[in-house]
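Sharing in case it's useful to others searching the archive later.

Someone asked me privately for the predicted structure of Deoxyribodipyrimidine photo-lyase, so I'm posting the question and my answer publicly. Question first, with the sequence:
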Amino acid sequence: MAKAITIDERRVRHLNQIEDQHGTVIYWMSRDQRVRHNWALLFASQKANQLGQPLEVVFTLAPGFLGAPMRHYDFMFRGLREVETRLRELGVLFTALYGEPGKTLPEYAASRNAGALVADFSPLKLVRDWKQEVAPGLSCTFYEVDAHNIVPCWLASPKQEYAARTIRPKLNTLREEFLTDFPEPELQHQPDKLPPPVEWDEMETLLKVDRSVKAVPALEPGEAAAELHLRDFVDGRLSRYADERNDPNSGAVSGLSPYLHFGQLSAQHAAFEAARSKASEANREAFVEELFIRRELSENYCYYNERYDSFDGIPEWAKKTLLEHTGDRRDAIYTPEQFEQAQTHDPLWNAAQTQLLETGVIHGYMRMYWAKKILEWSATPAAAFDIALMLNDRYALDGRDPNGYVGVAWSIGGLHDRPWVERPIYGTIRYMNANGCKRKFDVPRYIAEMSGSSQATLF
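And my answer, the predicted structure tokens:
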């Protein structure tokens, strides 16, 4: 008899009022695309064992997702191939459905006589809408499990938090309860034989997406690659993180954001490993602050503010000060195309944009500078917000993510910040300039590296 998996019940909630039925348990894998360290998969496997039924994992491939180009699908598909292989080794069927989830998923659940459907959590409006469309078409229980956050988003706070200082004590109160290691999935009722694997090449041809944005073949996706990156960081660069993370030349950052975005790595697992590493407490806590407090603050914002992807969603004080300075003279105003092609007068900004275009990432400190200069060189703050979000979502492998939305809203719209000294264009929004960057790192070196190599990355 396999031992029971212990899952904190506060991580799970019902999305309908139907009781468990006698039938296959389906885990609708969406945001958390991994087999290990996945509370949603663990809950689904536990439910399957309780019902004496097999577990099946389903991935729904919509024709498009918030404008994501082929770069992102390439990274995701290569990771999903690994997920399927790992699941088949456990005797778990992995099925990929093409079409809108609201239609395809209830139909498939009915065809499998599903006893329960388990979904992972996302605060994004589109995914929440999908779940609202799926729920009425089901004749089985519908569960949602927050497998993406260390503390479940709905438990961390019942409201939109003002800043890191207001959510930090709430998260830290629950930190010891939720920052734990993971059990392994154990399944008791899997079939002896599985049908043929997914035809991934055929699935890719069905997508109606922009294929002009090049993939990033130098960055290996998937659960195994994510674990290697984590180990490399925890055993090496974490010891320099607190002092050097804002220097894009230092290589001190984790480089984990694409893996966290696609759910190929668990933030809880990463934080747990960092917290028990040999690095100093200052370095451990600096990393956990970013991975836990700041990241889950972003989740909180997107969960409680439906305008998270709009200039209209920023704080009223920030909106007021920016609009008061809309008419201020700008040294330059660039079109979205000029920004996209890294054609500004600033070599440092162009280097950051080139890094984004070529590698799918921008160093975190440079992303703040990058966004603030878009504010400075756009006709209006609302236009700047839209341009920054478009570029981030189109080229960054961690685009269309709460961290991205909040990063733009913080840089341009003062979100989770406070008023600073008033100045032209910015009003009382926090200011950044190239001289500040020069005080923190070797700017000419960064520009040279970004300009000289199409494979330059800062992982």
